[in-house]
Design a protein that fits this description.
Blueprint: E1 8-12, E2 36-39, E3 52-59, E4 62-69, E5 77-82, E6 87-91, E7 94-99, E8 105-109, E9 119-122, E10 131-137, E11 140-145, E12 150-155, E13 161-166, E14 179-185, E15 188-193, E16 213-218, E17 223-228, E18 233-239, E19 246-251, E20 261-266, E21 271-277, E22 283-290, E23 294-301, E24 306-313, E25 325-330, E26 334-340, E27 345-352, E28 358-365, E29 370-371, E30 376-378, E31 381-388
Antiparallel strand pairs: 1-2, 1-25, 3-4, 3-31, 4-5, 6-7, 7-8, 8-9, 10-11, 11-12, 12-13, 14-15, 15-16, 16-17, 18-19, 19-20, 20-21, 22-23, 23-24, 24-25, 26-27, 27-28, 28-29, 28-30
């Protein structure tokens, strides 16, 4: 274990100031408070009964899926080879491994046993369709394909291909709709179509991007039921399992109207609630974890080219007031990803830009956004990960 005593985090004080302007602004503008420097001391040897994770990581010869525990991280069990561009998804009480780029596949796991997949679908040849998300709806498995012409549909029990929901009618000028995230809520399928112009010319005078579109489909007929236009640039829908709501995150782009941040949409009430947003579009959220009553976001801050963490109360159906969050700011390391469980226990993966980079992980208090004294260096870069029992 390396010493991280020299790594200093700048922990932002709680923004307790209330917005006194006449505008309804719950953004995250600079409040004028000063950040305080806190040093993270190296932890002692981790206990044998540490936290367990399912980890998609960069191994010595490529991507791999592994089970690891903070008590003896280096002695984890490697389960299979995986894609370096892959991702892990928790949907419908299953864990899904999406292998993307090169040999592409989607692998379904019962979380009670990661040693043997429950089912697997493999695209033939170098498909380059880039499966992005998965959802089970009305007995069918729906898979979005970012560089494909439609949403692939499989039988839930046999994984037999049933067909595709064609998305050509929603495509932008490059010919693709860029189907991204999927959620199934109240027996309807929602998909976020990025309509990302892959041929964008940064020197062009005319707008290059048209922004995201959400489309709601009837999963029984595969027919469109409703469109949700003007969803911002590269909108991601974040499923909140066991609820009727889902979260939404967008990125800033000069051509597309929208405020970056995290919003909650309730399809039954047809209402949006603001949880945190950046009024000047000066930050981009790139990872989000939702627990039982808290949420943690990682964001890139353009002003200092640093990564920040934000922790706040998670309140579906209710807007969060301005500055009702805690934040963790670092100028010497890069935050990579965050995971969280229903007990609001959160872990961060991060790295220091040495040569080679040094990868580490630590837990944080999701109430205060402050790190706990359990940080440890790990051998492999974490691509994606989940907390497991």
């Amino acid at each position: 274990m390396i010493s991280l005593a020299l790594i200093a985090f700048l922990l932002a004080c709680q923004q307790s100031e209330k917005d006194t302007s006449t505008q309804q602004d719950s953004g995250t503008q600079d409040s004028g408070t000063e950040d305080t420097a806190t040093e993270i001391e190296p932890s002692s040897e981790p206990s044998a009964d540490g936290q367990s994770f399912l980890v998609l990581e960069e191994g010595d010869s490529g991507g791999q899926l592994a089970l690891r525990n903070t008590g003896e991280w280096e002695n984890g069990e490697v389960l299979r080879e995986a894609s370096l561009e892959g991702k892990l998804v928790v949907k419908d009480e299953y864990v899904w491994l999406l292998n993307r780029g090169g040999s592409e596949s989607i692998v379904q796991y019962d979380p009670s046993d990661f040693t043997q997949p429950k089912a697997e679908y493999v695209w033939e040849g170098p498909s380059a369709l880039y499966p992005s998300d998965v959802a089970i709806c009305e007995g069918q498995v729906f898979i979005s394909q970012y560089y494909g012409s439609g949403i692939l549909v499989l039988d839930e029990n046999t994984f037999e291909v049933l067909g595709e929901i064609n998305l050509d009618a929603y495509a932008d000028d490059d010919g693709f709709a860029e189907a991204s995230s999927l959620v199934c809520k109240k027996s309807f399928l929602y998909v976020s179509l990025h309509r990302f112009n892959q041929n964008e010319d940064p020197n062009a005078e005319e707008p290059q991007q048209i922004g995201s579109l959400w489309v709601m489909f009837d999963p029984k007929t595969w027919e469109e039921e409703r469109q949700f236009p003007d969803q911002g640039y590269r909108s991601l829908m974040i499923d909140v399992p066991g609820t009727q709501v889902f979260g939404s995150v967008i990125e800033p782009h000069i051509d597309v109207t929208g405020t970056t941040g995290f919003w909650i949409y309730d399809p039954v009430a047809d209402s949006y609630n603001s949880q945190i947003y950046f009024a000047y579009n000066d930050k981009t959220i790139f990872d989000t974890a939702i627990g039982g009553s808290r949420a943690v976001h990682l964001a890139y801050n353009y002003a200092d080219n640093a990564t920040w963490a934000f922790c706040h109360e998670y309140t579906p159906g209710q807007d969060q007031p301005g500055y009702s969050y805690e934040r963790l700011v670092s100028s010497v390391i890069t935050l990579d990803s965050v995971v969280m469980n229903a007990q609001d226990e959160a872990w961060l993966a991060f790295h220091k830009d040495d040569d080679p980079p040094k990868h580490s992980l630590m837990s944080i208090d999701s109430q205060t956004c402050q790190p706990n004294e359990d940080n440890q260096e790990i051998e492999h870069r974490i691509i994606d990960w989940l907390m497991v029992d």
